[in-house]
Write a structure and sequence with these properties.
alpha+beta; four-stranded mixed β-sheet; 4 strands
Length: 192
């Protein structure tokens, strides 16, 4: 890797997290994120793809990469969440890291681009669906996923009375979906 970029907003969010959350949970979340990105990096190397650097920003950590085919991108994208979920095998010895990794892994499996799950679905559609229909099918999958997330968050708010956190989570996800950057084929690629 040639470069590491850290966004100023990421530093501000990190400082805010230090004020609001227990330090041992913050360290566990950082370790889980490093493991997640390490799994992406290992998959990149095994697939023969290049990694130019890593950037840390308000959207999390992202490896700046170059893929050869949709199949390679799908493999590299799924490697992070699967690696995160596999940390559950070590729950007995590193419970906090395993919980943080599970949450990160499941979050990244949501089939909404630019999350890893969205990247996997998008690349599988490039392989399996006719070229003219890929975008409409992906939009349908994302809309359905977001609708399910809204319904679940409202259920958590109204029925389970868990507060506004699930609704805030879905709002952030909505923001990310609607504030997308250019397609990854038009700019340098990245795995989250």
């Amino acid at each position: 890797m040639q470069r590491l970029r850290i966004d100023a907003l990421a530093c501000l969010l990190g400082a805010l997290a230090l004020l609001l959350l227990p330090f041992n949970w913050i360290i566990s979340a950082v370790m889980a994120a490093l493991w997640h990105e390490g799994c992406h990096w290992l998959a990149l190397k095994l697939c023969g793809c290049r990694c130019y650097g890593i950037s840390v920003g308000r959207e999390g950590a992202m490896l700046e990469t170059e893929f050869g085919t949709p199949a390679k991108e799908a493999i590299c994208a799924i490697a992070g969440p699967l690696g995160s979920i596999l940390l559950l095998l070590f729950f007995r010895w590193i419970p906090r890291i395993a919980i943080c990794a599970l949450i990160q892994g499941l979050y990244n499996l949501i089939p909404v681009y630019p999350l890893d799950g969205g990247r996997v679905v998008r690349n599988l559609l490039q392989i399996l669906v006719k070229e003219g229909r890929q975008s409409s099918v992906m939009t349908g999958i994302e809309a359905t996923s977001m609708m399910i997330m809204v319904i679940l968050s409202l259920y958590c708010l109204i029925v389970l009375q868990l507060g506004y956190l699930p609704l805030i989570f879905v709002s952030i996800l909505f923001y990310r979906v609607f504030q997308r950057k250019l397609s990854c084929k038009e700019v340098q690629l990245a795995v989250q």
